[in-house]
């Protein structure tokens, strides 16, 4: 398996230079993973498939979904791509490389774990700041236009927010200067996580059912349903920051209440 990956990587670095891989390659990978993982949830909602796993009964109109896609394409081309190009010198300066040999899985997993921890911390505080009155009204309210989120709404936001919270995602790699394959794997995992958190469905196979402290769709969907001053659940991937600072109390009370109701119904049956 390792030899196959190395052979594929050798082909890439032989046919493309570092700038092309780090900027255009990263952009293409991001767009592919984002839209291929996010679009199916639009079709699930329109077709009404797996509706018993849908967290909210309300559906978004086709017009609202199309508006989201159109804006996303514009934001990605006009914000994400220029940021990738502009940040390339910083990553190179910090030691990012694309050459062989590839880093070991131990190095890759350690760095990605560090990125998750740092991203959770930075995102949590940045997200709480965005829920202050002025910033919510002028910036973050755009992301909350969709009270019933679907996968692609994960990156639907004001350009300023894209830059503000996007910093949380890239600060870890910027500090460590990883191999490009580590950066790509981090980007893929992060995109899949945020799409899942906004998908609007809680399946029996959802990761939050098996991985402690992982938020997932049920946790983040609660954040979108409530008023900005009372929402809580500000965390990104893992929920320990909300637990530490008590900003998930409303969500926990609701879960406990539903658990009690389900238990009572079970006894009646």
Percentage of residues in DSSP E strands: under 5%
Query: Low-confidence parts lasting 5 or more residues at pLDDT below 50?
Result: none
Largest sheet: none
The Rg value, from CA coordinates, equals: 20 Å
Query: Number of DSSP strands?
Result: 0
Shape: globular
Oligomer: single chain
How many separate helices?
10
Mean pLDDT: 94
- Structural class estimated from helices and strands: mainly alpha
Helix content: 55-70%
N- and C-termini, Cα separation: 52 Å
Instruction: Give the ordered list of helices and strands.
Output: HHHHHHHHHH
Characterization of the model:
The protein is an all-alpha fold and about 270 residues long. It is built from ten helices and no strands. Helix 4 (about 105-130) runs antiparallel to helix 6. It starts with a helix and ends with a helix. The protein has helices at about 1-15, 20-45, 60-95, 105-130, 135-140, 160-175, 180-195, 215-225, 240-245, 250-269.
Short structural summary:
This protein is mostly helical and 269 residues long.
Annotate the secondary structure layout.
Blueprint: H1 2-15, H2 18-47, H3 62-93, H4 105-130, H5 133-138, H6 159-176, H7 180-197, H8 216-225, H9 240-245, H10 249-268
Helix pairs in contact: 2-3, 2-7, 3-6, 4-6, 4-7, 7-8
Using brief descriptors, characterize the structure shown:
mainly alpha; 67% helix
